[in-house]
Amino acid sequence: MSAIFTQEETLASELRWALHEIRTLRRVVPICSNCMSVRDDEGLWQRVEVFVRNHTEAEFSHGICPDCAAFLCPSVSGVSESDSE
Fold first, then answer.
1. Residue 56: which of 27, 78, 77, 13 has the closest Cα?
2. pLDDT at position 32, please?
3. Rounded CA separation 5/31 (Å)
4. Which of 3, 27, 31, 85 has the highest local Cβ count within 10 Å?
5. Distances from the Cα of 15 to the Cαs of 10, 21, 41, 69, in angstroms?
6. What is the domain partition of the chain in residue ranges?
7. How would you label 41-58 residue by residue, b for 16+ Cβ within 10 Å and e otherwise?
């Protein structure tokens, strides 16, 4: 009888975790249109990377996409703004 109870406990735990995961992935995230900061549940604004790291298992690495490289550093990127249009 205790083996069945243990299986039921395990299943209940797995279902609670699955529900937590669904809630984590299905929510509206208020984000600033300008700086892309995210407002958390306490009303504080933080960088999107921090918010995602705190609410998921995701980690970020940073780089510069070709369009931004051409805009920010045209002499270094080797791509002019007219080439990226």
1. 27
2. 93
3. 44
4. 31
5. 9, 10, 24, 45
6. 2-77
7. eeeeeeeeeebbeeeeee
